[in-house]
């Protein structure tokens, strides 16, 4: 949408919670608007003198934007996992770096300096970071309303906590996917703000189920008003790994307009859009794109990304949460909101009396990295990260294919509806000593759909195939298998913690458990080892009582 056709956000202030409405400008923070006036002699604030900050400067060796390749580093062969196991690791690779320094005082007015970064500051962002983010958002997300603004936070968990307190009153509910990020639920439930799960399919939240839920809402039987806030992870959905299509996003946005719902778009995995998985023998080498940062390459990359809800938001009803946790470092505790100015002002009021603003050291270092790289350099960095995590996903699923027999079938119901799912059964090996009784049954032990984004494989355990299964045993058997894996040195995320409403009766879940498995962090040799241990333990588990 062209800038000329973009509209102003509409008045959505009726969504503000009673707590948010009651927030006043912090008396001391309210003085900050005067601090930068030319010639002002400020004796008002209790600001320490930068002369007494014990750091003269900060220097860092920053990786160059093109540190990671844009295509997989080796061809697909039946022995490619050996290359991963015994090839040169990232830790041993000579890193290409460039030195940057942040001085205490700026050599040129407006430069990043410790005197400014380490001082008390507003809860919006340092000026240089604000400028970078505004350019980034306008190029990548392209909001459909004109008066969007940016506000920093200490990461998406903090961002969501602030958003839900700004929008929701105790006794209200929040629309969310039936499987969702547990910390988001944990942050609101103690305030008696409860999850209202919406069914999912292979594209995430189902629009028809959302429409049915809202159109038939009965506040008396539900004992709460119709929800007016949605929490959603549309790309690399946590835990399922699904990514919502453009058509589905538009459907959900239109429903939210119809029923006056605010969308909080939590999108930490947006730049880890990995594409479809293909088995090793089916992969073909792709043409190697340019490795250097450039405006043309940036535009081509951005055009491959599924659009944000912001791109369809002509009313200003989307609060988008972004973070540097998955693209630079989680310990930086730095993220940002993109939203309409009314919501941003209320979120700022909340921030200035709590965290105030993220750590000045982290802001300074990340801002220096970004301005050193430039926009095109950061985009090049993101492109390389995508390839790295794609290789990790592919390698992990390759290991599953080595360890188990995977049978592809279309999923016709549940959270994978519309996808090709892989059912895993035992791969009979002469060395295993497996009984003929077990191998003849060839029971499906688990199934999964390769994630198209994010860091996780969401695995469904076919516990109804366990010899001792009885209705009601799901949680007991899931915990038993999870415990056995832990005792053998492998830790997965237990599925129960990702259920938005663990108390709800759902026939699709009653005969199965789940694991969320991360492929994002450990070395390739350890991924291979973990899958080998998992294979042994789950085969033993499904042989019990035979």
At a glance:
The chain is an alpha+beta fold and 546 residues long. Helices cover 34% and strands 15% of the residues.
Task: Please name the defining characteristics of this protein.
single chain, alpha+beta, six-stranded antiparallel beta sheet, five-stranded mixed beta sheet, 17 strands, globular, transaminase activity, PyrdxlP-dep_Trfase, PyrdxlP-dep_Trfase_major, pyridoxal phosphate binding, aminotransferase
Describe the structure.
With 546 residues, the protein is of the alpha+beta class. A hairpin with a 7-residue loop joins β14 and β15. The chain starts with 17 loop residues before the first helix and ends with a helix. The chain is built from 16 helices and 17 strands. Helix content is 34%, strand content 15%. α13 crosses α16. Keywords: Aminotransferase, Pyridoxal phosphate, Transferase.
Structural class of the secondary structure composition?
Answer: alpha+beta
Mean pLDDT, all residues:
88
Query: How do the strands of the widest beta sheet line up side by side?
Result: 12-13-14-15-17-16
β content, as a range?
A: 15-25%
Radius of gyration: 25 Å
Organism: Suillus fuscotomentosus
GO biological process, one term: alpha-amino acid metabolic process
Family: Belongs to the class-I pyridoxal-phosphate-dependent aminotransferase family.
Protein name: Pyridoxal phosphate-dependent transferase
């Amino acid at each position: 949408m062209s800038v000329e056709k973009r509209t102003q956000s509409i008045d959505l202030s009726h969504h503000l919670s009673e707590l948010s409405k009651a927030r006043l400008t912090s008396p001391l923070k309210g003085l900050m608007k005067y601090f930068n006036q030319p010639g002002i002699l400020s004796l008002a604030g209790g600001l320490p003198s930068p002369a007494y900050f014990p750091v003269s400067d900060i220097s860092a060796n920053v990786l160059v934007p093109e540190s990671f390749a844009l295509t997989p580093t080796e061809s697909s062969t039946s022995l490619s996992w050996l290359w991963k196991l015994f090839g040169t690791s990232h830790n041993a690779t000579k890193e290409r770096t460039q030195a940057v320094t942040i001085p205490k005082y700026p050599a040129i007015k407006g430069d990043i300096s410790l005197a400014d970064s380490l001082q008390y500051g507003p809860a919006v962002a340092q000026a240089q970071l604000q400028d970078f983010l505004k350019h980034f958002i306008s190029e990548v997300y392209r909001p459909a309303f004109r008066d969007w603004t940016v506000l920093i936070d200490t990461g998406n968990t903090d961002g969501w906590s602030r958003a839900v307190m700004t929008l929701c009153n105790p006794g209200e509910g929040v629309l969310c996917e039936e499987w969702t990020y547990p910390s988001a639920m944990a942050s609101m439930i103690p305030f008696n703000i409860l999850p209202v799960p919406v069914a999912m399919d292979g594209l995430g939240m189902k629009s028809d189920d959302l429409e049915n839920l809202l159109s038939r809402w009965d506040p008396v039987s539900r004992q709460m008003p119709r929800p007016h806030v949605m929490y959603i992870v549309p790309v690399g959905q946590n835990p399922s790994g699904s990514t919502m299509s453009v058509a589905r996003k538009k459907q959900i946005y239109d429903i939210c307009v119809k029923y006056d719902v605010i969308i909080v778009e939590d999108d930490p995995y947006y730049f880890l859009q990995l594409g479809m998985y293909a088995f090793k023998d089916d992969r073909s080498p792709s043409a190697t794109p340019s490795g250097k940062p450039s405006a043309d390459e940036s535009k081509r990359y951005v055009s491959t990304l599924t659009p944000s809800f912001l791109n369809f938001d002509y009313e200003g009803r989307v609060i988008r949460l972004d973070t540097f946790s998955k693209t630079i470092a989680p310990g930086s505790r730095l993220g940002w909101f993109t939203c309409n100015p009314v919501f941003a002002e209320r979120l700022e009021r909340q921030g200035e009396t709590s965290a105030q603003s993220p750590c000045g050291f982290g802001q300074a270092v990340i801002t220096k990295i970004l301005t050193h790289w430039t926009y095109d350099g950061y985009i090049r960095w993101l492109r390389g990260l995508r390839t790295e995590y794609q290789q990790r996903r592919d390698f992990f699923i390759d290991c599953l294919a080595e360890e188990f027999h995977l049978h592809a079938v279309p999923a016709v119901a549940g959270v994978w509806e519309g996808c090709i799912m892989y059912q895993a059964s035992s791969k009979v090996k002469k060395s295993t000593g497996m009984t003929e009784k077990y191998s003849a049954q060839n029971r499906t032990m688990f199934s999964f759909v390769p994630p198209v984004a994010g860091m996780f494989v969401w695995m469904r355990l076919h516990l109804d195939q366990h010899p001792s299964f009885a209705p009601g045993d799901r949680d007991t058997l899931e915990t038993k298998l999870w415990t056995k894996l832990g005792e053998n040195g492998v830790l997965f995320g237990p599925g129960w913690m990702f259920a938005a409403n663990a108390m709800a009766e759902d026939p699709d879940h009653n005969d199965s458990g789940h694991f969320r498995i991360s492929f994002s962090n450990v070395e390739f040799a350890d991924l291979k080892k973990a899958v080998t241990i998992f294979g042994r333990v789950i085969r033993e588990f499904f042989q019990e009582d035979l």
